Amino acid sequence: MAFAILTSSANSEIDIQSVVDRHLLVVGQTGSGKTTSVLALLSELQKKNQTVIVLDPTGEYTKLPNTVTYRLGENAYLAPDQLRVDELMAVLNLDWGPRLRTKLSQAILDLRITRHLCKSNGIFKRQGVLIADYQQDLRRLATWMKDYQFTKLAEQLIQEFVVPYADQRADFNYLGQELAQDQLRQNWDQIITLATRIAQPEFQKLFDYDPHPGTFKVELNYLFKQFTSQASEHRTLVIDLSLLRQYPHSQEALISTLLKRVLTLRLASNIKFPVRLVIDEAHRYLPKEADLVKNGIFQIAREGRKAHLTLILTTQSPLDLAPRLRSQFANCLLHRITDPVEVRSLNLPKKVDSTQLLVGKGWLHCDGNEWQEIQVQLPEWWTNKNDQNKR
């Protein structure tokens, strides 16, 4: 069974390759059939042995058969040491200025020294440490010594406010001799916020820093590297991000970070098999116009085809996408939308009326060709599943 057929001709099947060879935007109001259409599309891609990665913020796509499913907090996690400081701050939703960001970076460095050179999981106390000795530690710290005691990060950050005495006792051969109390008080709210975020159950599960004997989990960056470097065999990778459902800014940052990693990996390699990247309900995680250039979704949309990466995005309104992002999508599957402003934003020809579409019907536009009215075909597994539920 094909993904979809033309409503004007029951025998005219839609060529799925033409639908996914360019970035595809799936638009429609809640309940108009967006998710069903993408599930049908993914079923067809599985048959054709295409590699697909679904970033699923709600857990909706775990119902798709023949998937390799990883759920954050259950069998997948994100290693903090795999993140740059700006990425870590974004995932933790910390809006800090440059100075505090620099101190956070230094705190991570000091925790790495403690873990790998001092063989301790405690904090690095800067009082009374000679600068020459500290510099020697930095030279000894190899690039592979990346992991650190993440739970101590807020406590270590306090140590970064150690300074020389403010009087004649100051000895500038040392990193510092006392805590800068005034500076600490000025930044105390941010330090407490960091400590609170780290202690929240969702972030404990995301970063997986509690012992769990007998439970095997896979790190997300490793998972993405494996799936984008080796073609799948009729399987789809689903990353269930619903652990962070209550933290949309963290989900946005995580999705952006993962997509940028995928793009970097593929651009640096000679691998050419296509990978389809699916983001459901993308309107929840799309950046503002001012932040667009730094966002992974936009970077994939703009540069992904060089690395044989294409996006499939679902959203409720075309206006959810900034114009610069929307212009990157050559293909569009339009389900029911009724808002006149949203309709006008798509510059639809007169024959295209999306206001009266029934669930499962839509208008398809592929790479400059005419809009075609289609009927999405439910995959066999969907029909069989619903029949079993009725028994």
Automatic annotation (TrEMBL):
Keywords: ATP-binding, Nucleotide-binding
Cross-referenced Gene3D superfamilies: P-loop containing nucleotide triphosphate hydrolases
Every AAA+ ATPase domain range: 20-335
A GO MF term: ATP binding
One Pfam family it belongs to: DUF87
Highest taxon in the source lineage: Bacteria
Protein name: ATP-binding protein
Organism annotation: Limosilactobacillus alvi
Lineage: Bacteria, Bacillati, Bacillota, Bacilli, Lactobacillales
